[in-house]
């Protein structure tokens, strides 16, 4: 089989290959055109004759293994290079190059690429300007980004063999050619500009620190912009020279660069070691680098030798050079600079040492404006703020304006270079082991170096030296060199050679990356750069790289170039992370990295960090880089990218398509989103070409590229025999769709007959929810001719099937006369004859057509027909208003049709149809054939689009109309008459057909054919020309007098309507009308009536009203009585409960209705709405308990007004997106209400109520009333927990578990009340509240199989938590946290709600099919298999009404439960706090502290209230925090 490999399969980048060419990569499944003789010889004697015919597609295993073992992963161009060298050294024995390990192959190259120019030239300045903390933050962010990127890269690199090409290969093969090309170009530009940055760094070291005298443009004596310009020009000249030399070295041979790589790396390592050695030395012997400071300003060291104004020489005082620099003469009486005169000189030790404590001074940032003077922190200076600084050329100045984001952009290039290991994968012994280990260790090492450098620089060097970028204050030394041991020249020369080596490496790697992209062929205009020298060296790519690099050198500022390459590298790293995240999330079968320590969350975090750093560095550079990448992406998408690499973007498309299709399956589209999704049925000729190409023109004019379009065709035959014809037909469809610019899909169906094939297309077209809702089919030609009757029969069946499927039907007549897409109408009308309401399709069609350039200048006219009883004037006004609301601009006309005598022609036409039926009957046709033959003579359509001169389209209503007749099969004659009567619609076909018996209508080209025949046609038919002969021949009836008068009236109406349409729309370009279709029900009306009969007992009222009534009792009696436990606040507790509940229920109906029950523009009401609203009311009433007696009714209503929208939104989000199980409302009702109420009472805190209130007491009667409320709640709580559970076993379990839980909590409450009471007596507060705890704790798991024992235990646990909460937690909350929980809702609803939520999570984790059986997926509906899962089909066989779920596992559902708990608590608490702020506003009649818990403030109390009011406040009856009642 190896002989069958093509020439390109020698290895990627072979002589005839275009780059990677993955589509032709070495594979035993790709065979050349080997002759049959050679093939037979190849298989002879190999015992494989049995599989000889399959060898083309299924080769031998031996060839497969051989080709895989010989897989070549050489870099593009390197194979040719290798072959050229072999030819030159053919005399020598070929020796395979030794493979490198992790250290030499990955670790050290990555170290060399990461450590570089920024460390030596800018790191000290970054620390000085950004501060130790700020710079450490930058370093940590950048190093974290590269570490996360390295993790993602390791996963990609170990997922199979990675040829050289680095990130370009990874991204292009993971995200596709478009992303790969865009990011590959960005990576190439980044590498190229990195070369420019290294060269600029090299020149900066050369001209500033090594040989300053070599500057061509002298800077002595220049200031400000002139000095800066001179420096930049020097950089440009020398940079161009160095670039030329480096490009020449690379052109001559890369082997010289590779041989010097270790030398350059040694320089880097020695320089770093020198820095660490210098740091250690500073701890006991700091170097002497004094900095001269005047006042607090740092002086440049050149130009003076002594840091003093004057010196004593003998007995005389002599001025220094420094004096002469600031004064106009050398004498003591000279006029000097004011600042120089007023401030003293001092010397600052530039490197005080690591033990000096200078770190504290350098911790924080010190950003500077451009040309601002470098000042020493902590020194005082005498300065006149109004006097501008003079002699600024004597001071150390800031060369650029610094800020945090600038520092990020300058620093980030120092952490790039992490791809060096992956680029060398072909030279590694074990790439899949070495790349992750070596890269991550290199990043860890360099990160340590960078982070430690930040701290050590800040601890050793003074701030003025750190901020002195070019060492002007320390005798022009390199700042980091001043710290090095044994000499600063170690750092100077080490950094110089390091930058030279890094520049050469960039100029070596960038052209090869460009060559790889060019040879892939994904960017056509770059293909020229894929060529090179005979040995594969990328000559043209090197030339382009040098030109781009020169553009960076012309910028001439290292600080300006660094952010540019940061952008490109960050974009590359971002897409590496994206590639890993996508592959992980999509779970593609071939995603099996050997490196296991990755996660999609880490990749997304890395991608987010990259994007953040891009905009931190420079938002405008980031936008420019994205625009460049976007332009390249679109260019590749339109002009190149003929590769198919099985990339992740295609996987995303598939996943997104699946997700979208699943969403579409959730329900029918809203009216606002409805648009025609068209299935176009076209006919094919003998050569498999489309017979009606104008159908696609009309489709384009209707669709304008929007929505779904399926072009379907049918081929008659069998699939095995006619597959080539089907493929040819499909190609023909695709070509025509491209010509007509129809965006959609083609589908060809093969069947034994065309009728079944068309039916298959209508039934099976589309996928899932993305299906057609409209069928477009051309009106059959020559339908009256015998040889074309099969077309007519097929057409009739299409109409019936679209009716049954509730699809719209568009039938254009004389489609060949329709305008092409290139035509234009400069004027004219589109007439709409709106006879019956069709759901709005008839109005939509002209609007869609007028969006196209063909019909854009046509105006719209609407005609409607008024009967004798109609008010035509009012109809016109209503229609104009209707169009106004539809935002359609059209002329309106109402046509009146008066009653008139039925003409003889009408009778004659009806008679002809019945006689034809009799003829068919005598021909002994079968009933089915006779029915189809009858249909073939009619012009059938439920709607039509009529085009004047001479074309027409029929539109079918999407909502079926009721049949007018009974059973047509029993009376075929009546059916004939019915069909004719219902479809007697004028349609323009032949220009010779008269529009009416009048001669004026017979002008050729303007005539309109009736669906009935004209006089000439009647004369040509013997049965019509001589009716008597028919009677004699067949001896038949009926005569006119025996005709069905109903059919005669239909024919009469069709004739009159035809005359009106011809008269009004004679000049129209297009006429659209809707007409009734054939009878939908062939078996009569009995089945129809039976199917539409309603069964009252199945109404939701009878199932849900008992629960509604029980919850009503709980809301109004249970809560009302329970809240009346204060002896002086009985009215307030019960009546305000009544008021709040009624208001809340009404408000909740509206708010919840908007979220859950709103469709078709209305909120639909039912018993379930009321139950949901009462649950929302319970939420408010529970929250009410926290502020009982301390608020006015106005505040309560406002609290209800604000709480309900927050609750409804939370409920909607949790149920729609998190989709949790919470049958008893423990999360959404109890927890939400509790923490919302606590938030409100926190804001409404009253310090004076902490120790109780005189009126905060109960009485014998109030406690009895409150216990009555408790009993109401206790009795009806099972209904509360089971109201919305699944009917059947789930609801049964909910009732049982609730009752058991309540019973357990009641028994436990009585026991604990006596045990915790000092006198061993029962507390009424415990009876009123704690007994209800069990109903809450079982809520979240109430409908699950938790067993009665578990329900009992939950009841006990809830009771204990509630009781202890009343005794200990409530006082603590009031005293310590300012939460005055008046009724202890946190104990009965908060603590128990948390216990219930935890129990529900445990129940979900333990639920299995072994316990539940198939009903598991009813109880836990979100764990049911998703739509389309075979398991769902099997389950639906057992449980027919089982609905598709989300396919969640138990762990996933538990996590969503946890998210719902914390999310609900957070939203409720925040909402409660904000509501409390609103309630605290003045003018809301809030009671004073003295008037709290008193009915007299708001009620007209009865006379006996005085007795209660004057009763002594007995101690035992005062309810303290530990003894307060609850709101339910």
- What are the low-pLDDT stretches, counting only 5+ consecutive residues below 50? 1-47, 64-95, 919-1041, 1081-1095, 1511-1528
Largest sheet, spatial ordering of strands? 8-7-6-9-10-15-14
The global form is globular
Note the total helix count.
53
Question: How large is the radius of gyration?
Answer: 45 Å
* Overall SS class: mainly alpha
Average of pLDDT:
77
Question: What gap, in angstroms, lies between the N and C termini?
Answer: 82 Å
**Largest sheet at a glance?**
7 strands, mixed
Number of strands: 18
Descriptive report:
The chain is mainly α and 1528 residues long. It has 53 helices and 18 strands. The strands form 5 sheets. The protein has a 7-stranded mixed β-sheet, with helices on both faces. A 4-stranded parallel β-sheet has the order 13-12-11-16, covered by helices on one side. It is globular and about 135 Å long.
In short, what is this structure?
The protein is mainly alpha-helical and 1528 residues long. 54% of the residues lie in helices and 6% in strands.
Descriptors:
single chain, 1528 residues, mainly alpha, seven-stranded mixed beta sheet, four-stranded parallel beta sheet, 53 helices, globular
